[in-house]
């Protein structure tokens, strides 16, 4: 067997008729910039998330930048100052912290919970209590691997210290925290529609969600060069529009999101059951509301790379998300702050391994992955 991390060709065949029809409609109307599908997608996701506003944009990265810029403008500044601090996790993709820097602020990296891999609310609170609360402006919790952060605890902290919350929902479309949709809980949410995401297009795409009408209005203007009138702009904006054809593909795929998320959850449960007796493996918790963008295990005793090589030899793809923490990257060396040693994040980066979780995986393919992993640990 050859087991890829994700099989987009298989998914396309599954929903081929819907996607082909969506693309054909675009070819016929030829409205490529801000065509009708963009508004239709914004409305559909707005209803799905149960929020007041959604604004489609060109990528998940830009969604974070746009939302942060909107918060800065609402507070009275075009950009944040380097004195302004935004708290986030070091164990995520670089885009999260990169967007903070691009908005003018300074990322503050706070350690993670060793089970969920998400930012640790207790560590956030500890930092704020040490006297930096006057510099902090907001928190960006990342719902990593599709597992929701503890939004209740983070919400209480944000309220106490008057901080905004921007949810990074790039890996968790359709996920929930206590029956509330991720992206609807904080002051705003940022989504990615990169092809590999739970809802992905055929290129780049993103979206900002918010219940704050002012943030929505500013975000919409920033997407289109910074003004309501493109020939008389108010702010330094971007060409960050969501392409019509990508919106049409997302509309076509949207009807499959909940089905595919449920498939991911079933695969995760099957993996957990099959790997439960291997002492060297810590499987992920099946948290209510998680949608398993990735199924990520921890391998103890420093054998992660050895297992990855073994699986590759058996034609099973795996990925390490992420081999380097953000604070270890040169780009953030003089642009971010690390209040305390990030012990858990650094340890996780050396132990995590994501297994294939293609929603259309067969039972036979899942069993092959499980049995191959068992074989590795039985031989060694």
Rg from Cα: 21 Å
The named CATH superfamily of the largest domain? Type I PLP-dependent aspartate aminotransferase-like (Major domain)
Structure annotation, total helices: 13
- Beta-strand percentage range: 5-15%
- What is the number of domains? 2
Give the SSE order as H and E letters.
HHHEHEHEHEHEEEEEHHHEEHHEH
First-residue to last-residue Cα separation: 23 Å
Q: Could you name the CATH class of the largest domain?
A: Alpha Beta
Low-confidence stretches: none
Q: Note the overall shape.
A: globular
What's the number of extended β-strand segments? 12
Oligomer: single chain
Q: What class would the helix/strand composition place it in?
A: alpha/beta
What is the CATH architecture term of the largest domain? 3-Layer(aba) Sandwich
Name the average pLDDT: 97
Question: What would you say this structure looks like, in words?
Answer:
The protein is of the alpha/beta class and 380 residues long. The chain folds into two domains: 8-254, Aspartate Aminotransferase, domain 2, CATH 3.40.640; 257-379, Aspartate Aminotransferase, domain 1 (Alpha-Beta Complex), CATH 3.90.1150. The chain contains 13 helices and twelve strands. α3 crosses α9 and α4 (60-74) crosses α8 (213-223). It is globular, with a radius of gyration of 21 Å.
């Amino acid at each position: 067997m050859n087991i890829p991390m994700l099989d987009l060709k298989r998914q396309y065949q599954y929903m081929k008729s819907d996607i082909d029809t969506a693309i054909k409609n675009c070819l016929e109307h030829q409205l490529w910039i801000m065509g009708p599908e963009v508004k239709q997608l914004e409305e559909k996701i707005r209803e799905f998330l149960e929020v007041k506003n959604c604004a489609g944009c060109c990528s998940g990265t830009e969604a974070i930048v746009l939302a942060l810029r909107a918060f800065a403008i609402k507070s009275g500044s075009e950009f944040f100052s380097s004195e302004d601090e935004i708290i986030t996790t070091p164990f995520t993709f670089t885009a999260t912290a990169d967007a903070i820097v691009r908005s003018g602020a300074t990322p503050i990296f706070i350690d993670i919970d060793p089970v969920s891999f998400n930012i640790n609310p207790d560590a956030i609170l500890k930092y704020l209590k040490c006297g930096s609360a006057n510099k902090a402006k907001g928190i960006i919790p990342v719902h990593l691997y599709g597992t929701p952060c503890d939004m209740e605890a983070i919400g209480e902290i944000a309220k106490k210290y008057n901080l905004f919350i921007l949810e990074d929902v790039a890996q968790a479309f359709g996920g929930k925290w206590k029956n509330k949709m991720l992206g609807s809980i904080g002051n705003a949410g940022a989504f990615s529609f990169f092809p590999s995401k739970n809802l992905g297009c055929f290129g780049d795409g993103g979206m900002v969600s918010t219940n704050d009408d002012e943030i929505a209005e500013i975000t919409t203007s920033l997407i289109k060069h910074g003004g309501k009138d493109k020939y008389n702009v108010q702010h330094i904006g971007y060409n960050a529009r969501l392409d019509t054809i990508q919106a049409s593909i997302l509309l076509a795929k949207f009807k499959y999101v909940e089905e595919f998320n449920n498939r991911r959850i079933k695969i995760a449960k099957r993996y957990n059951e099959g790997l439960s007796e291997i002492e060297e493996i810590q499987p992920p918790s099946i948290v209510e509301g998680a949608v398993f963008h990735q199924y990520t295990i921890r391998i103890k005793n420093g054998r992660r790379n050895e297992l990855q090589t073994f699986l590759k030899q058996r034609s099973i793809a795996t990925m390490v998300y992420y081999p380097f923490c953000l604070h270890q990257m040169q780009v953030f060396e003089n642009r971010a702050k690390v209040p305390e040693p990030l012990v858990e994040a650094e340890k996780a980066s050396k132990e995590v391994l994501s297994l294939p979780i293609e929603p259309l995986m067969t039972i036979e393919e899942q069993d092959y992955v499980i049995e191959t992993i068992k074989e590795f640990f039985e031989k060694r």
